[in-house]
Amino acid sequence: MYVAAKGGEQAIQNAEALYQALNGGITLADVRTIMEKMPYLVDRVMGEGSLYAPELAALAIAQTGGDLYEAVLLLRAYRATQPRIAYANPASADTLLTVRRISAAFKDIPGGQILGPSLDYSHRLLRLDVLDAQEDLNRQDAKNAEDAAHASVNSALSAVQNGVVVSDAPAPPTYPALADWQRGQGLLPQTQPQQIAPADIPDVTTDTVTFPAPRAHRLQALARADTGGVLALGYSIMRGYGLIHPTVNELRLGYAEVELAHPVTGATFSAGRVRVSHCEVITPDAGKNGYMLGFAATMGWNEVKLIASSTLDLDMAANEGDGHSAHSEEFVMYHTEPVESSGFCIHFKLPHYVTFASSLDNVRKIAAASGWEK
Amino acid sequence: MPLSDLTNERQDYSYGYLDAYAKRELRRRALKAIAIPGYQVPYASRELPIARGWGTGGLQVTLALVGPESVVKVIDQGADDSVNAANLRRFITRMSGCATTTDTSKATILQSRHRIPEEIMGEGQALVLQVPDPEPLRRVQPDISKAAQLHADADYGQMWLGLYEQLVRHRQYVQGADYPSLVHGRYVMNPSPIPRWDTPKLHQAAHLTLLSAGREKRMYAVPPYTNVYPLEFDDIPFQVEDQTGRTCKTTGAQNKFMNELPQADGTAVYELSDSGYAEKLKNNVATALTYFDEQGNFYHDGYLKPPVRPA
Predict the structure, then answer these.
(1) Residue A109 with chain B: CB contacts under 8 Å
(2) B310/A contact by beta carbon, under 8 A
(3) What are the φ and ψ backbone dihedral angles of B148, each rounded to 5 degrees?
(4) Residue A111 near residue A294, CB atoms below 8 Å
(5) Contacts of A19 (CB under 8 A, 6+ apart)
(6) Contacts of A303 in chain B (CB under 8 A)
(7) Are B212 and B25 in contact (CB under 8 A)?
(8) What are phi and psi of A85, to 5 degrees?
(9) How far does the CA of residue B50 sit from the closest CA of chain A (Å)?
């Protein structure tokens, strides 16, 4: 029963227990499986949760039964409790350990197009044969199932190796930035990196956001934005409510070294590698000669989010103030924030009978005055 | 007699992937599109095992046309070996058993994203163009129902105004690919994002062109021997992309549409965008006549005019 305050204590505990029971409970093995088998889901939660912690993200997914907004909230709430103990050096495109980099602007680019891991050109056919094997699995005990899973991974790996022409030379780990070539051609304006101490970089997680926002705020907000949210707004631009056709200049997936200065010796060391992705889109600059560049980056690998976000970045720069929602920095930043938007949306499940009674009073009075009420 | 003797053997997917109802609908819509050149015919675009926006509109038309006798060529940006083209070709032949080719002249169905080949296509060939945005009026009217009314009234005033604004601002038309064009003197259409170099090839073409947008669920056609004119003012003619001075690094060809390839030293080299044509030149195979000759002259005399800059 839906009881708002008093007497609801037991009810809410039961509701949560029922939710967890229907999801079958969670174990460490479940968390490990999610982490290993669903890296893109884990990436999405880490990106929106703005905390790089694959195990915690997998735990959040398991604990919420896969409700992504709840999982992101769990991770954000945990993140808020953690102190910031150091600032890493900036990671740049030319030192990124790149596993995939593509450009739609040119057929080939210095360093080459590297397709890397991708489902882009797969046939989206359900592999129903996997389900046939499930019947066999059911008859085995858990140990056998695990062995079978490992065997299937190994056979998939060897299938890939069999079907692919393996090059003698390994691909280079890093690639030049295409935008640098365009700057050399005078197609893009020259830029100078801003010299700023890490602790002075505007931080959207601790600052009050005002508009127009510093560029750091905008890029941080897009990095942790809701994938579906930026997609909807970005798509509105792409489909016709914007003035641009974004051309993907360069899209990259890779691993960035988290380089830190040792607190005692001051020597630079790597604390580990994190999965990151970034995207640039370009469009002709209507006001000047050459092109404009939109940019977005996020933790984890999330291509659709980055193409949408970099398109938003570009159109917000090109068309700010023309009245369309997706061109307004304020509109985009506020409404693609996953924790705030989902939280406010579900708050409407809370009892609202006092406010409703207040409006009911008015509606009845108006109706009575106009003789509608029978 | 067991029931299994009376039924067909179970197949995972229908011939050509689409079920018979979907094929019937697509063929009827295609006939309507051919009957009303340039008019956008809505259809119930099905989900395909290819991501939306990656050529599912063109693919549905191709799958509705394809048969065991068909010879299919698929290009993306002019290239047969482009990953998306290779993938679509693999899917079409996997689902239909049709033959494939890279030779424009041999294809009965040619599905393309963003290019029309350099060699002149002939009667009996179908060109299927993948369309991201079928609505030319979207630039001036994003609301589909209002745009439909403008089409019904043949009210293209805002398009002309847009062209005029381009001339005022830049002293030239600045629309890149997908140059809006008037079909059969009635409907303005988006020719799909083919370069302006390819737009004239649709005019009085011997082949059938079907244009299909899967995401937007619209299909339209340019039947053989139909007038197609890019929107242009009488005194400021439409211009194709300038290819002068560009020589293909592998074939030495000139006056064809070229890919610009950035080099590590900051320069650029060029190669033919039409990979099937380049392959023929490389292997000394006889090529068909091309829409633009060696000197860059278009095959319909007088259709393209020299540039004029407004005062």
Answers:
(1) 262
(2) no
(3) -60, -40
(4) no
(5) A65
(6) none
(7) no
(8) -100, -15
(9) 6
Please indicate whether, in this complex, the C-beta atoms of A107 and B49 are within 8 angstroms of each other.
no
Of B48, B90, B133, the CB nearest to A240: B133
Kindly indicate the confidence band of residue A165, based on its pLDDT and cuts at 50, 70 and 90: low
Q: Which of A55-64, A157-166, B258-267 bottoms out in mean pLDDT, i.e. has the lowest?
A: A157-166
Q: Which residue of A has its CA nearest to B47?
A: A124
Residues in chain B, total? 311
Q: Tell me what the mean pLDDT of segment A311-332 comes to.
A: 87
In chain B, what residues touch A123 (CB-CB under 8 Å)? 49-50, 87, 90-91, 94
Chain A positions touching B91 (Cβ under 8 A) are: 123
Touching A: B residues 210-249, CB under 8 Å: none
Nearest chain A Cα distance for residue B263, angstroms: 6
Q: Is the pLDDT of residue A9 over 80?
A: no
Q: How confident is the model at residue B130 (pLDDT cuts 50, 70, 90)?
A: very high
- Entry pTM: 0.81
Question: Residue A118 in 3-state DSSP?
Answer: coil
Look at residue A293 and give its three-state secondary structure: strand
Which candidate from A125, A181, A240 shows the least CB-CB separation from B266?
A181
Q: What is the 3-state secondary structure (H, E, C) of chain B?
A: CCHHHHCCCCCCCECCECCHHHHHHHHHHHHHHHHCCCCCEECCCCCCCCCCCCCHHHHHHHHHHCCCCCEEEEEECCECCCHHHHHHHHHHHHHHCCEECCCHHHCCEEEEECCCCCECCCCCCEEEEECCCCCHHHHCCCCHHHHHHHHHCCCCHHHHHHHHHHHHHHCCCCCCCCCCEEECCCEEECCCCCCCCCHHHHCCCCCEEEEEECCCCEEEEECCCCCEEECCECCECCCCCCCCCCEECCCCCECCCEEEEECCCCCEEEEECCHHHHHHHHCCCCCCCECECCCCCECCCCCCCCCCCCC
Contact A120 B49 (CB under 8 A): no
Q: Is the peptide bond before A212 cis (omega within 30 degrees of 0)?
A: yes
Q: What is the ipTM of this complex?
A: 0.70
Q: Hey, what are B89's tokens?
A: 């070709």
Cβ contact, residue pair B263, A110, below 8 Å: yes
User: Angle at the Cα of B257 (from B239 to B203), degrees rounded to 5?
Assistant: 55
**Helices marked H in chain A:** 9-22, 28-37, 39-49, 54-63, 68-79, 129-139, 142-163, 178-184, 215-223, 227-236, 303-319, 329-335, 338-347, 353-369
User: How far does A102 lie from chain B, in Å, by closest CA?
Assistant: 12
Q: Is B77 within 8 Å of chain A by CB? A: yes
- Whether the CB of A142 is below 8 Å from some CB of chain B: the reply is no
* A241 to B77: CB separation less than 8 angstroms, yes or no: no
Q: For chain B, say whether A235 makes contact (Cβ under 8 Å).
A: no
Residues of chain B found within 8 Å of residue A106, distances taken between Cβ atoms:
259-262
Mean pLDDT value across chain B:
94
Q: Do residues B130 and B55 touch, judged by C-beta distance below 8 A?
A: yes
H-helix or E-strand containing A297?
A: strand A291-299
Q: What pLDDT is stored for residue A305 in this prediction?
A: 98
